[in-house]
Amino acid sequence: MKILLVDDNPANLLALESILADLGQELVKAYSGRQALRYLLNQDVAVILLDVNMPGMNGFETAELIRRRKRSEHTPIIFVSAIDQTQNHALQGYSLGAVDYLPTPATPEVLRSKVAVFIELFKKTQEVRRQEQALRALNAQLEQRVAERTAELQRSNEELQQFAYVVSHDLQEPLRVVASYVQQLAERYQDKLEAEANELISYALDGAKRMQQLIVDLLAYSRIDTTGQEFAPTDCEGVLQRVLSDLRVAIEESGAEVTHDPLPQVMADNVQLGQVLQNLLGNAIKFRSQEPPRIHVSARQEGQQWVFSVRDNGIGINPRYAERIFGIFERLHPRTEYPGTGIGLAICKKIVERHGGQIWVESEPGKGAAFFFTLPIKGST
Ligand SMILES: Nc1ncnc2c1ncn2[C@@H]1O[C@H](COP(=O)(O)OP(=O)(O)O)[C@@H](O)[C@H]1O
Ligand SMILES: [Mg+2]
């Protein structure tokens, strides 16, 4: 630790030195305010003992300049002065942010213990500062790591999507060949083969078709991010009407009744928003109970987002599977019971997330299901 002693009188400096020598700290002497200021330009000291009465720049002026500098604005200053108007001086000293004022000749014990206190304080402050710096460094390091991980994840995510795209694209062709030859086999040898052979052929054909559908679904899924349109003001009522007309046959056949509240305008890719509603409504019709489907679509504002819901009175879902059903090809029922590949909700999830929203379901078996998804209001008109 350094202690800066400022006095124009060498004898006084010598006296201070001998009093403070016991503290075992480095004592730096300055014979004028200017010299002190110069020293403080690039040095930190634990405390400054400043003579008030100096020729040229006096102690108060020096203190004022010391205070004005960022580096030394908080460095403790103890004024030491022989002059008599102690009261006055003391007041001026305190107003300059001096921490103390000592009349000379100083009592050695008093001076020593005061300075010792400031040294202690300085040590503590330095320790705190060191810890703060360490924390900052750690924090920066963490942030850096998170950024790296995020970039890494994004990269591998993109690679995975690319992979899914390439694989499904490349699989389509050989599969088309398989399907088409099996089909020809069935047509040409229908009468010439035993019943069992025909059955086996139909299984093969069925499998090939199913695989084709899975690949088409996978392709659609992997293209959501790449073929998505820019978001534009989208009238949700219009989107819903389009979806309802696409689903007309299914609605009529099932005797479904679809109602809705007024729906907002949002910033969205309207084709993809249509896909979301179509999948949710399609499911609500498909997974119906004995009752004819009653489906209600609504949207409510909640903070900075719209919360859409599609409620049905169908078979419901065990909450245990509430998350799982949003995964690719995850289904809770065999194909024979309900047709489908299990991609619909995965597509919904990906689309909603691309729009900055979330999707989830609330349901119980036998009590219908309510699917919710959010869209940010920010940027919508
Ligand atoms: N409205 C619903 N009511 C009951 N179960 C549902 C509903 N929607 C989805 N599910 C369950 O979630 C699974 C996944 O749905 P989805 O991804 O659309 O695939 P798919 O319709 O091809 O089965 C469904 O197989 C079904 O088990
Ligand atoms: Mg579906």
List keywords for this structure.
381 residues, alpha/beta, five-stranded parallel sheet, five-stranded mixed sheet, 12 strands, binds adenosine-5'-diphosphate, binds magnesium ion
Task: Write structural notes for this entry.
This protein is α/β, with parallel strands linked by helices and 381 residues long. It has a 5-stranded parallel sheet, sandwiched between helices. The protein has a 5-stranded mixed sheet with strand order 7-9-10-12-11. The model has no long low-confidence stretch (mean pLDDT 91). The two termini are 64 Å apart. Strand 4 (77-81), helix 4 and strand 5 form a beta-alpha-beta unit. The protein is built from 11 helices and 12 strands. Helix 2 (33-40) packs parallel to helix 3, helix 8 (236-246) packs across helix 10 and helix 10 packs antiparallel against helix 11 (344-354). The protein binds adenosine-5'-diphosphate (ADP) and magnesium ion. Residues 279, 282-283, 340, 344 line the site of magnesium ion.
